[in-house]
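Homework-ish question, so no full write-ups if that breaks the rules, but can someone show me the predicted structure for this set?
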Amino acid sequence: MMPKTCFASFVTATLVLGFGAADGAAGQAQSEARTADAAHRALLDRYCVTCHNERTVNGEGRPASPLVGQLRAVGLTLDTLDLADVGGRAAEWEKVVRKLRGGVMPPAGRPRPDAAALDGFLDWLEGELDAKWAATRDPGRSATFHRLNRTEYRNAVRDLLAVELDADDFLPADDSSFGFDNIGGILRMSQALMERYLAAARTIARLAVGSPPPAMSADTYEAAQDLSQHARVEALPFGTRGGLYIEHLFPQDAGYDFRIQLTGTRRLRESHDLEVTVDGEPVEAFTLGPPADGASDNPYAQASTIDFRLAVAAGPREVGVTFYKQPSALVEQVREPFPNPRVAGNAGGLAGAQPFVQSVTITGPHDAAGAADTPSRGRIFSCRPAAADDEPACAREILSRLARRAYRRTASEEELAVLLDFYDQGRAAGGFEDGVELAIRRLLVSPEFLYRIETDPDGAAPGAPYPVADLDLASRLSFFLWSSIPDEELLAAAEAGRLRDPGELERQVRRLVADPRSETLTTNFAAQWLQLRNLETTVRPGDPFSVAFDESLRQSMLRETRLFVDSIVRDDRSVVDLLTAGYTFLDERLAEHYGIPGVTGSRFRRVELPADSPRRGILGHGSVLTLTSHAIRTSPVLRGKWILDNLLGTPPPDPPPNIPALNDQRTQAKRPTVRARLEAHRANPACSACHAMIDPTGFALENFDAIGRWRVVDESFNPIDPSGVLPDGRAFDGVAEMRDALARDPRQFVTTVTEKLMTYALGRGLEPYDMPTLRRIVREAAADDYRFQSVVLGIVTSDPFLMRRSQS
Amino acid sequence: MIVTQKSLSRRTVLRGLGATVALPLLDAMVPALSAAARQVTAPVPRLAFFYVPNGILPRSFHPEGTGGTGFDLTPVLQPLAQYRDRMTVVTGLSNSGVVSPNEGGGVHTRAHGGWLNGILPKRTEGADIRAGKTIDQYAADHLGADTALRSLELTTESNYQVGNCENGYSCAYRNSTSWLTPTTPLPHERDPRVVFQRLFGDGGSVEARLAQMRTDRSILDSVGESIHRLEKKVGAQDRATVGEYLQSIREIERRIQRTEANQASTPLPAVDQPAGVPDDYEEHVGLLHDMLVLAFQADVTRVSCMQMARETSGRTYPNIGVPEAHHTVSHHQQDPHNITQYTKISQYQMQLFARLVEKMAAAPDGDGTLLDHAILLHGAGMGDGDQHTPYNLPITLMGGGCGQLAGNRHLVYDLHTPFMNLGLTLLEKVGVKVDRISDSTGPLTGV
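A: Not a homework solution, just the prediction itself:
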């Protein structure tokens, strides 16, 4: 039945007829076109205009119902749009394409055209839109001033000066738009931010040059509250138990005070060996518990803190503090089926309590003796002046080289003079190195460093496309694939004008993707696209899931998805494998969580999955399933919306005001299933229009609980029914069938991935005029089995990436 | 290729004299500050805003009756009972300017983006974001003229999360409560250590910090010149970006001058700094409040705006028996359980706010306390979270405002009296004359 709120206003289509009587072939073509137009119009009138019409959308007064309100918000009046001028209203027609290609319109329960008619209409519509774009080839206009975001700034500093610091330490996270935090016009400047840049420049320049810090600092590293201390900690050696792995930047060749805080040392029955390593080399060892010979006096027998001073050479060092694993620790694991992360509740047993590392504090430097040799100094001091007379030339060499990397082009004499001026000031106040340090401090707040600046060439016609400068193109490439500045090879190719030579862009793309720095495609792009960031930071399952969820599991979940996405990128696999691949990466903890046998130990390894495995592809990943759940229950709505937003590219409208949420009341009494409650919710036509497309894919995932464990009954012991019908009418029963249904015609999924990747690559939202390019990239990638790198290449060789529109 | 995530440990950094810090921080710092306390000749007003998300259940907040002094405290106001004589509760105000009947979804964004400016935020994710200059920034034009910082923006939330912003709206509308201009949202800082460094500098001796500031100033001068050179190369459309950059530089330069000029009367305190963002929400809020008290007391700034949590917050509060998400229970549908949970959260956030009030009441300031001189506005962008409407906003004013606010009063206005009228009133009380903000019709009578 038709919702009452949609008026049955079958507006008679007014065909815009050609003028004059044409003759011969031209006339026949025109009349065929007219017939086609009439067919398209009839299709729209029959299936779309019932709701999307002028009277409903542009009606006066308060919306008669929430559905009308939603229609007004969408704003499409398909009865008044002229089919003879599709290109003239590309924005509206692209909305139509999106909804129809995504299979979410007409809404479930409403009549739909048959597949052939729909495809015919869409092919025609896209053809019109693509042809219209081809006449202008508008590449869009990226922001003139594009500030580096926090991730890019951190990576740029790493690549420029070999200084690695926690991003959180020096800059705030950035505002995002279109799902990404690298959108040009959104990255603003403010007093607060500029102050952070100044402070960061001060610290980074000092650490890079290796001059003494203004004050001692104490860095405390705490073991996460809920990280298992029974198993080996990631990055520490095999055969060890718990502890802390720390990457610490030692600013000077100096003494540093270490303080290790321990817990659980009171009632030790066995001795436990604690080892401290720096860069993998043992530097200190302590024995806790009863001494082996039973006689000598052990000051550390019950120690809860251990203090010592170590001489450490300046530079980034890996510090490990960990226990040798006891044979009895194996028993501990058996005794506690669920590893309690901390000492609480672990006070006794056959082997007595076990000691744990709680925190490590490093305080220093003491008796600093400069910084003789660090990676940063190696990177900076390409020359060393033998005498005072050599200093100016050496400073010039150092700074012109650094400025070239930092500004992503050879610095002008004027720009170099600015830096040398600061060098002179620092030299006058101190020595050669002080001069270089002050100049680096200035360099790091230069607008030429903090902003990617793309200006129109002189004499460019207004509003016309032009090829971006080769050096700007080099930056576009490196910021896309590395979230960082170009390396020398890329800069050199750009400066020599070789970047647009046949095959060169492809060569550079393959080279950049093969480089370890391209891990940002996983840690930055995919972490935002798939929303993994939320699992990194905010997602905290509540009861009854919190007992089974801890930091170790969180890390394992994130690691699985990172390794998986990375394998698609680097092995150049099909993008569709993200949905369907017959493998994943697991350690013991996660395999147990999934109920997959035969995976032992904390090492992640590739695990093959059978064809009907629910764990195939990202829809079976604990990470995705957890971050799309509420703290205390699953949410088919959140999961369904996540799929529509991120996999199918057809985000549903936000709910209208005053729509009730599901009743989340927690009682002991048996409750109806989430499905039953949602179905009640959907009985309201204002809700069903959207929820009929949101919920079904979420239902398919109901066999996974709120932290991604497989289940056959829900929290109230209702059996799970994972069946449903996709908006386009295809039925499925369970996640495997739903997943395969999504992958059967992967165009929509690949289009969505490409759209997200293109948004990220361009640092701007996609506009209607970008859609023809998007379609072309997907079409061409199809010929190469939708391989990830062919999609990347399609983007890199597209007009929006290579060109820019001048100011109009 | 292996993607590692090696650093599993949480790191905190302390810098400063002994590189140690004893909590509670405020207690440790107050003596140091008092020694350095500015010799106040006349008390100066302070103005601060505290935003809570998802509205507050009206009957848990608004006292019954027609106003006056004899009102009964509702559950959400209960935590402030001790400071009743400093409390003004306001009923009936609305922010009708942010209502958009034809825009569909996005109610949270509009309620928050327009909270302190009454302006309907422009629906866009692009560079053309636009809302309105907020009340606090009007105040800062005047109150910020003599202080090192114009204003201080705080939050408990990170911008790092993704996927939580409503369709078609940039996250900037959710991340920033305070807007310097209609096109410049101000970043809100969540790390107490960073706030401390903004207020008092980064470790080292006072002389060393001043020397750093002078170097910073010469760097800023030079950066300003670089930007001017760039400005010539770009077209009119891009000048706004350049202007924003220059404005931030000028603000910092001004700030350095102020700090140097005030050095004689307000020496930088020689104290240690907090260690970063605590895991615990309550501790986090407490530390940020401490920073605010310090900032007011040391007269580094007189204006502030803080998000107690971010709009549409899905934060859970298991520590007070609310494992459900705030946003979820705010859609209460009159369900008794949801209403209980929803009210508990509002009450809890008010309790945390009450601790700030207590700190302000204990902080000497000139001839009285900070609470005597400050006006603190606690409120939300929506009335009932279940309705998502910006009507009958839950507004609580605390403080004496230098004799401008009587306290112990419940003010009741006709429903849909513009909230911006209260904005004009508060600005008037801190000595700022603004004729109109969005739909305002004039200052309120009787405040």
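Now go work out the reasoning yourself. Hint: Chain B touches chain A through 108 residues (CB under 8 Å).
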